[in-house]
């Protein structure tokens, strides 16, 4: 299979050890990750089709920050802090919903228009001079739509716009018609895992484990699975299937029902494709479905995996059957990966763990770790620095690198 995208080569010699164990359970490092990796990097929160009509909203919570993405009366989609300007209550409750014409804060009844502006407050005469409506709208957040997916960030950070960052994915997303997807009936899922978020990423960032750990995936596409390392830290994986019927029930039936989508270029026709977004997100496509999933850190030892599933707008019966089978294979795969991430994370506490020894097939971990070390150079320390010194040491290392000491 010839691919339009070309992978950066893997060097002959590279440091195969991975991040040191302490980085997987340090509370001080976790605080730095919150500041420098999560709140200021783009996060995918849904798809335009999740909120098709004015008043439809999606919520997105991350590390004490919380957003609401809302379609206005004018059809525009905007993101705001889900935080009432009176005393900080949530203006919408839950993961997803619909409001009629306005958001009404459940605490004291302040009312916001669908463009985030403050419409009015209850008992305005009790606020002395009154409340300046222009000054108390919901706080807007950056929002960008790429291929129909909704991206937001809580603060500006080192990443450029999503369109610029994900430009190498644009042709594939267009071929997948990613803007045309619809949510499946029960779109969202989540699972809480007792691990550091990096242990989830470490499992997901390589295909070396597919042969043993994922019998269904191995049966489906294990003979031709490729990781592509693209400029800008991007990482795409393609699994090509259909060269044989499949031995397992779900795989055999999937291969039989999976539609050949006219209009897809050859490299996507019988392909499961995974597009990585640093630091914690993957958007994946099969010929009959799409999804995104990400590991959202909760604490150094707790991670919430969440994702949303989508289908083609013009789905016929055969395509729907294939989608169900794909989801079944995926559900098994996800359970297998969750167990692996738990074992990997546990080992970080063992006195006898001496670090990873990575294969070339696990080069994706190395790249991810390099990106992390670049932003948080304290992760280069082989041994755990005293917790209280981690922020200062990280600053020092950053300054030394930029020559601003
Ligand atoms: S906190 Fe929203 S109205 Fe008081
Ligand atoms: Fe896996």
From TrEMBL:
<dbReference type="InterPro" id="IPR017941">
    <property type="entry name" value="Rieske_2Fe-2S"/>
</dbReference>
<keyword id="KW-0001">2Fe-2S</keyword>
<dbReference type="Pfam" id="PF00355">
    <property type="entry name" value="Rieske"/>
</dbReference>
<protein>
    <submittedName>
        <fullName>Anthranilate 1,2-dioxygenase large subunit</fullName>
        <ecNumber>1.14.12.1</ecNumber>
    </submittedName>
</protein>
<dbReference type="GO" id="GO:0005506">
    <property type="term" value="F:iron ion binding"/>
</dbReference>
<dbReference type="InterPro" id="IPR036922">
    <property type="entry name" value="Rieske_2Fe-2S_sf"/>
</dbReference>
<dbReference type="InterPro" id="IPR015879">
    <property type="entry name" value="Ring_hydroxy_dOase_asu_C_dom"/>
</dbReference>
<keyword id="KW-0560">Oxidoreductase</keyword>
<feature type="domain" description="Rieske">
    <location>
        <begin position="42"/>
        <end position="152"/>
    </location>
</feature>
<keyword id="KW-0479">Metal-binding</keyword>
<keyword id="KW-0223">Dioxygenase</keyword>
<dbReference type="Pfam" id="PF00848">
    <property type="entry name" value="Ring_hydroxyl_A"/>
</dbReference>
<dbReference type="GO" id="GO:0018618">
    <property type="term" value="F:anthranilate 1,2-dioxygenase (deaminating, decarboxylating) activity"/>
</dbReference>
<keyword id="KW-0411">Iron-sulfur</keyword>
<keyword id="KW-0408">Iron</keyword>
<dbReference type="GO" id="GO:0051537">
    <property type="term" value="F:2 iron, 2 sulfur cluster binding"/>
</dbReference>
<dbReference type="InterPro" id="IPR001663">
    <property type="entry name" value="Rng_hydr_dOase-A"/>
</dbReference>
């Amino acid at each position: 299979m010839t691919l339009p995208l070309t992978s950066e080569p893997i060097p002959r010699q590279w440091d195969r050890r991975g991040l040191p164990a302490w980085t997987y359970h340090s509370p001080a490092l976790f605080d730095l990750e919150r500041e420098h990796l999560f709140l200021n990097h783009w996060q995918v929160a849904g798809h335009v089709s999740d909120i098709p009509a004015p008043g439809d909203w999606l919520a997105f919570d991350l590390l004490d920050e919380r957003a609401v993405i809302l379609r206005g009366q004018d059809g525009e989609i905007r993101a705001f802090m889900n935080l009432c300007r009176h005393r900080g209550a949530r203006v919408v409750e839950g993961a997803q919903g619909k409001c009629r014409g306005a958001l009404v804060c459940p605490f004291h009844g302040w009312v916001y228009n669908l463009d985030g502006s403050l419409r009015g407050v209850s008992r305005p005469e009790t606020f002395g001079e009154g409340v300046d409506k222009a000054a108390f709208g919901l706080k807007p957040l950056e929002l960008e739509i790429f291929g129909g997916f909704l991206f937001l960030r809580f603060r500006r950070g080192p990443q450029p716009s999503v369109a610029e960052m994900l430009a190498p994915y644009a042709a594939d997303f267009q071929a997948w018609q990613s803007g045309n997807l619809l949510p499946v009936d029960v779109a969202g899922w989540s699972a809480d895992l007792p691990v550091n978020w990096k242990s989830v990423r470490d499992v997901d960032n390589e295909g070396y484990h597919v042969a043993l750990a994922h019998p269904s995936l191995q049966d489906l596409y294990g003979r031709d699975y490729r990781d592509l390392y693209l400029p800008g830290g991007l990482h795409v994986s393609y699994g090509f299937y259909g060269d044989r019927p499949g031995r397992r029930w779900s795989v055999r039936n999937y291969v039989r029902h999976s539609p050949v989508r006219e209009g897809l270029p050859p490299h996507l026709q019988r392909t499961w494709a995974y597009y990585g977004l640093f630091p914690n997100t993957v958007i994946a496509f099969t010929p009959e479905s799409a999804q995104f999933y990400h590991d959202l850190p909760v604490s150094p030892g707790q991670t919430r995996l969440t994702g949303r599933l989508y289908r083609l707008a013009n789905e016929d019966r055969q395509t729907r059957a294939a989608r169900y089978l794909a989801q079944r294979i995926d559900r098994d795969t996800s359970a297998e990966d969750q167990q692996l991430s738990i074992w990997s994370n546990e080992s970080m506490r063992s006195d006898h763990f001496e670090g990873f020894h990575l294969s070339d097939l696990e080069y994706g971990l190395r790249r991810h770790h390099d990106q992390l070390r670049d932003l948080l150079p304290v992760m280069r320390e082989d041994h755990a620095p005293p917790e209280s010194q981690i922020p200062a040491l990280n600053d020092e290392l950053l300054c030394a690198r930029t020559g601003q000491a």
